[in-house]
Amino acid sequence: MNFLTINHVDHTYFSKQTATPALQNINLSIEKGEFISFLGPSGCGKTTLLSIIAGLFPPTAGTVLLEGQPVLSRDELSIGYMLQQDYLFPWKTIGQNITLGLKLLKHDKEASLSTAMKLLQDVGLPGVEHQYPRELSGGMRQRAALARTLAVDPKILLLDEPFSALDYQTKLKLEDLVSETLKAYGKTAVLVTHDIGESIAMSDRIYLFAAHPGRIHKVFEVPNELRLLTPFQARNHPSYSSLFQTIWKELESLEHSYTA
């Protein structure tokens, strides 16, 4: 059984005057432990689809199944969501931020603290549990946000351009950290990005979206020789440049079709 299955999903945004199609006939499946990317221009429905997967609202048509069950009918479902902003509560310490979800789930306090300490160690932030978000750099706050996301042991992680606000060096370091951490925890992840290089370096498979309405234009399997490397190492492999050029040309052709 596929871990995540999306069947014939359409979505339309309605206003009093108009109906705007955002997604059209989206079909895909993800196996447990895979890392996939949604890549495409602005307005192609990537974030809308991510929100539907998260169960934030139902699609206009179609179904989204996680482990064979509709996401909207699973009250106990834990889905991790990482955004461009870290959204740490500034009045709480890093430790309190990370254990907040566990507290809401009524987990044992000592066990929650132990989980937080291990996660901080795993994301390279040992000893910061008593500091406040304002005392950390942007990259450190995103590491803390990753630890907070993993603390509740989510079924799947949804990553909506989580590195786009960071400087390039920090972004590359966090790509490696996130990739290695998710593999270590055996997590399934979906990344929304505009960055071709990021999608190649981090993913097992890339879904390239066309816009107006959003639909899957082409699917790219990332070569195994890249998937076995860290994202930083993958960027320096000959296969990376070849795939980058192929995807770039597809994006260029899509842009030309929009403006024609």
UniProtKB/TrEMBL annotation:
<protein>
    <submittedName>
        <fullName>Spermidine/putrescine ABC transporter ATP-binding protein</fullName>
    </submittedName>
</protein>
<dbReference type="GO" id="GO:0005524">
    <property type="term" value="F:ATP binding"/>
</dbReference>
<dbReference type="InterPro" id="IPR050166">
    <property type="entry name" value="ABC_transporter_ATP-bind"/>
</dbReference>
<dbReference type="Pfam" id="PF00005">
    <property type="entry name" value="ABC_tran"/>
</dbReference>
<dbReference type="InterPro" id="IPR017871">
    <property type="entry name" value="ABC_transporter-like_CS"/>
</dbReference>
<dbReference type="InterPro" id="IPR003439">
    <property type="entry name" value="ABC_transporter-like_ATP-bd"/>
</dbReference>
<dbReference type="InterPro" id="IPR003593">
    <property type="entry name" value="AAA+_ATPase"/>
</dbReference>
<keyword id="KW-0067">ATP-binding</keyword>
<feature type="domain" description="ABC transporter">
    <location>
        <begin position="7"/>
        <end position="236"/>
    </location>
</feature>
<dbReference type="InterPro" id="IPR027417">
    <property type="entry name" value="P-loop_NTPase"/>
</dbReference>
<keyword id="KW-0547">Nucleotide-binding</keyword>
<keyword id="KW-0813">Transport</keyword>
<dbReference type="GO" id="GO:0016887">
    <property type="term" value="F:ATP hydrolysis activity"/>
</dbReference>
